[in-house]
């Protein structure tokens, strides 16, 4: 390649430029772009930035003007609405102040206002004689004559005027036609405007549709258009408030709720929504006041009830928390007494209570600090699920159990929610599958700590409805608790399948649920959970009487059964909740029979009491009574009758020769006999016609009656009454079935024996000794006991030896004294329409007297013939309601009149004959019908 020679001068110039540092700093030399071009570009960028800033400023000003315009329009709309509302409803308020509370109907208000105006005119014109010439007739004839005269005069005047002014009249007719067309056009315009006014309903419909789509701004726009045409429509105002509440524009929500309430002070939705807005604004007092009023107006509304518990509960929490804090901050005892009164309990915060509260708060504070310290010191892969610091819950437990202020502060301080969060994490680990090695890692201390945590939650909700609601609102805790019951159900359903939940923790779980059932929400959640209901029935079958098991396990199982039976007893107390058990029919009855057999020993009296209460409630269900009569329940029914009879006897009589009845045993015996009475209610019941007799019910009743004593009579009235009632249940069976093997005759002979009658008569004497001479009203249970005893005596009074026994005891004057006592007590009134026990007693007693009178024995004649006794019978005839007892009295008086003229004269003198005839006619009419 040929080399090109570079001139020497050019090479020298290039080298000089490259070595000049100032030249290298020039932009144009380095990049090929001149400095002028760079400056022009920078100027343009500055201008664009200035323009952008100015645009932003203009936009901000425009936005501010728009906000001011909207605010002004909003203020004007607010002022205009309230001005119109005050003008429109001020007359209503004024009338409400002047009128009595009873004159509250619109018609009465209008009449009242018209009367006031009329009275004012009368007062003005009464003495003004110049007004008399202006009198106008009001009778129809005068008015018709006056109208005819005026019509004739008008015709004459019109004819004369038309003849004198033809041009004017023609023009007038033309003007009238134009005016008529104009009026018609105006009428059409008014009608069109009126139709446009009616479109507020369409705007309301559009607003509702937008609201359902959660397009709240569009809904507000539609509602405001509706409000322009119907400014005082409460539905529109309440819907606007709801939209603003959804958008968290709380001030606007309160404004439109207040408008709705100004128009209708009892609008429940407006009260509820304003309370919600105030609650979010932490205006606790105003929110609570609105919710109290809403609940008073609609106490059956479930949503209002739930909202009331939340809002009013938060208000009460704020007040309690403030008061407790002020007490804790008090330095001297005088200031503590002045500020330490609980507004809701009305009890002062004593010095010991205050010290317990301080100690509890300090304990919780130290526990949280220690928990944080332990979590930070342990490696992430070695952290224990149960912190050792949580053992402090066991120290906190006694204070929660006995101190309501500690329970309140435990809630308001957030520590109760913190406990729930910890339990959620712990129970999640308990339910996770574990290997044998993992299970061995779990220490006994951890189980005790978890149990103590659950026990603290139980103590927190005990007799504290607010805490029950707060824990129910902790969704994670509630869900985890229900899942724990599902795990228990799986383990109970398959005995071979082990559960990871220790017995002591299971018992604590069920005890918590038992205390939480004071809340309707918890009850509904339990009833709705099939897993929990199944687990509860499975718990009842747990046997803890095995002496070979460890004492801790036995105690935990006993506590578990006690709590589970308590839950079943509580749930079955409500008719709506009872259906959940009744629907399980056969399984439920088989479970209870097995549980009663397992827990009838002396060591489980409390559980037995709950089980019998549960069974008593179940036996009131027609579904259960139907199920127990079915073939699948035949063996369970037979077993159940035997167990109940044995419990009734053992609980009342015991194993000692002397009757020693404790209140606990009396309750068990009462409930066992009550179950048998309920299940044998129907006359066709197999339990009544077969099982009772086969299970030696007569012998059991005889033993119970034999153990009655004056010392325990007051506590035993219900047991003896139910035993006598069960005795009467057998009457229909013994007379209504064929006696193939002669067993019925034997039982009848036994029931009517002198021994049984003597014991029944002795019980009546004990009743007379307990209550004779007392001015107080005789309790219903005593009337019922005596009514059942004399029901049985009346059943066998047709037997000659029975009447001989009664005559030996001189019962005729005694029974007439009973009727006199019943008349004096005035206990015949039927508040519920059903026959009273006192009335049944009189009916049964008179039945016995009728049987005694048929013998016409000379020993009874003086008592029947006595003037005072006849007066007693006539008095009962006057006071008794129409029924069997009154008819029996009439029959007895008729028999006395038939065979004794003196008795007849005495009855006639007391005007008893007329009443007897009236009763006789009513009986004939009833038979004819």
List keywords for this structure.
single chain, 929 residues, mainly alpha, 47 helices, disordered N terminus
Give the gist of this structure.
The chain is mostly helical and 929 residues long. It contains 47 helices and no strands.
Give an overview of the whole structure.
The protein is mainly alpha-helical. Among the domains are: 584-751, Leucine-rich Repeat Variant (Alpha Horseshoe), CATH 1.25.10; 782-928. Helix content is 77%, strand content 0%. It contains 47 helices and no strands. Helix 9 (216-229) packs antiparallel against helix 10, helix 14 (302-329) packs antiparallel against helix 15 (333-339) and helix 23 crosses helix 26. It is flat. The protein starts with 7 loop residues before the first helix and ends with a helix. Mean pLDDT is 80; it is low at 1-6, 100-107, 120-126, 339-346, 433-438, 494-498 and 656-661.
């Amino acid at each position: 390649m040929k080399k090109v020679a570079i001139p020497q001068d050019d090479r020298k110039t290039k080298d000089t430029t490259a070595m000049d540092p100032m030249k290298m700093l020039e932009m144009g030399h380095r990049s090929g772009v001149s400095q002028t071009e760079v400056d022009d570009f920078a100027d343009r960028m500055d201008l664009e930035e200035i323009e952008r800033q100015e645009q932003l400023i203009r936009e901000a000003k425009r936005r501010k003007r728009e906000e001011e315009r909207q605010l002004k329009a909003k203020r004007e709309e607010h002022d205009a609405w309230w001005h119109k509302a005050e003008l429109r409803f001020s007359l209503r308020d004024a009338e409400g102040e002047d009128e009595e509370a009873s004159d509250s109907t619109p018609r009465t208000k209008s009449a009242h206002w018209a009367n006031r105006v009329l009275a004012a005119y009368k007062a003005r014109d009464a003495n003004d004689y110049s007004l008399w010439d202006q009198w106008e007739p009001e009778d129809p004839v005068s008015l018709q004559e006056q109208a005819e005269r005026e019509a004739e005069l008008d015709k004459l005047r019109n004819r004369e005027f038309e003849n004198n002014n033809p041009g004017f009249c023609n023009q007038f007719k033309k003007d009238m036609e134009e005016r008529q067309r104009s009026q018609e056009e105006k009428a059409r315009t008014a009608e069109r405007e009126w139709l446009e006014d009616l479109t507020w309903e369409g705007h309301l419909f559009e607003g509702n549709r937008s609201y359902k789509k959660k397009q709240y701004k569009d809904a507000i726009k539609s509602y405001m258009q509706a409000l322009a045409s119907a400014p005082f429509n409460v539905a529109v105002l309440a819907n606007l408030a709801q939209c603003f509440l959804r958008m968290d524009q709380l001030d606007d929500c309160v404004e439109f709720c207040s408008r709705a309430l100004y128009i209708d002070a009892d609008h429940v939705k407006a009260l509820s929504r304003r309370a919600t807005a105030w609650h979010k604004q932490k205006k606790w007092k105003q929110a609570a006041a609105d919710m109290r009023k809403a609940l008073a107006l609609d106490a059956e509304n479930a949503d209002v009830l739930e909202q009331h518990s939340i809002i009013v509960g938060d208000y009460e929490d704020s007040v309690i928390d403030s008061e407790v804090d002020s007490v804790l901050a008090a330095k001297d005892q005088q200031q503590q007494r002045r500020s330490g009164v609980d507004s809701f309990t009305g009890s002062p915060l004593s010095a010991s209570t205050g010290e317990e509260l301080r100690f509890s708060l300090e304990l919780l504070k130290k526990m949280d600090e220690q928990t944080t310290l332990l979590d930070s010191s342990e490696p992430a892969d070695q952290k224990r699920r149960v912190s050792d610091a949580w053992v402090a819950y066991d120290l906190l437990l006694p204070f929660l159990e006995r101190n309501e202020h500690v329970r309140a502060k435990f809630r308001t301080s957030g520590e109760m929610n913190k406990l729930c969060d910890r339990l959620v994490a712990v129970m999640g680990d308990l339910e996770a599958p574990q290997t044998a090695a993992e299970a061995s890692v779990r220490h006994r201390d951890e189980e005790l700590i978890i149990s103590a945590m659950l026990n603290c939650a139980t103590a927190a909700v005990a007799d504290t409805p607010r805490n029950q609601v707060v824990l129910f609102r902790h969704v994670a805790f509630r869900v985890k608790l229900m899942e724990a019951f599902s795990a228990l159900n799986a383990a109970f359903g398959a005995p071979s399948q082990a559960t990871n939940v220790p017995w002591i923790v299971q018992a604590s779980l069920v005890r918590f649920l038992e205390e939480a059932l004071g809340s309707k929400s918890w009850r509904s959640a339990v009833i709705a959970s099939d897993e929990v209901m199944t687990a509860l029935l499975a718990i009842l079958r747990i046997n803890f009487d095995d002496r070979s098991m460890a004492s801790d396990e036995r105690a935990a199982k006993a506590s578990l059964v006690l709590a589970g039976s308590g839950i079943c007893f509580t749930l079955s107390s409500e008719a709506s909740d009872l259906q959940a058990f009744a629907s399980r029919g056969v399984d439920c009855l088989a479970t209870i029979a097995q549980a009663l057999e397992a827990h009838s020993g002396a060591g489980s009296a409390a559980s037995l009491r709950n089980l019998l209460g549960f069974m008593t409630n179940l036996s009131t269900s027609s579904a259960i009574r139907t199920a127990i009569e079915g073939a699948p329940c035949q063996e369970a029914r037979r077993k159940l009758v035997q167990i109940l009879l044995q419990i009734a006897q053992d609980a009342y009589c015991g194993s000692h020769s002397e009757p020693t009845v404790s209140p606990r045993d009396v309750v068990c015996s009462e409930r066992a006999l009550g179950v048998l009475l309920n299940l044998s209610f129907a006359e066709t019941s197999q339990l009544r016609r077969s099982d009772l007799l086969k299970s030696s019910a007569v012998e059991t009743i005889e033993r119970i009656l034999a153990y009655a004593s004056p010392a325990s009579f007051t506590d035993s009235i219900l047991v003896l009454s139910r035993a006598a009632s069960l005795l009467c249940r057998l009457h229909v069976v013994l007379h209504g079935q064929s006696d193939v093997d002669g067993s019925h005759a034997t039982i009848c002979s036994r029931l009517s024996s002198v021994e049984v009658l003597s014991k029944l008569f002795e019980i009546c004497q004990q009743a007379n000794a307990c209550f004779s001479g007392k001015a107080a009203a005789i309790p219903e249970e005593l009337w019922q006991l005596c009514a059942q005893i004399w029901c049985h005596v009346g059943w066998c009074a047709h037997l000659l030896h029975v009447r001989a026994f009664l005559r030996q005891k001189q019962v005729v004057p005694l029974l007439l004294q009973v009727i006199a006592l019943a008349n004096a007590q005035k206990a015949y009134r039927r508040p519920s329409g059903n026959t009273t026990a006192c009335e049944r007693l009189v009916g049964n007693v008179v039945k016995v007297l009728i049987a005694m009178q048929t013998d016409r024995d000379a020993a009874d004649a003086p008592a029947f013939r006595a003037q005072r006794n006849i007066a007693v019978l006539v008095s009962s005839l006057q006071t008794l309601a129409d029924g069997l007892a009154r008819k029996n009295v009439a029959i007895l008086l008729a028999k006395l009149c038939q065979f004794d003229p003196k008795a007849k004269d005495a009855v006639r003198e007391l005007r008893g004959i007329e009443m007897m005839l009236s009763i006789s006619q009513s009986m004939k009419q009833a038979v004819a019908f």
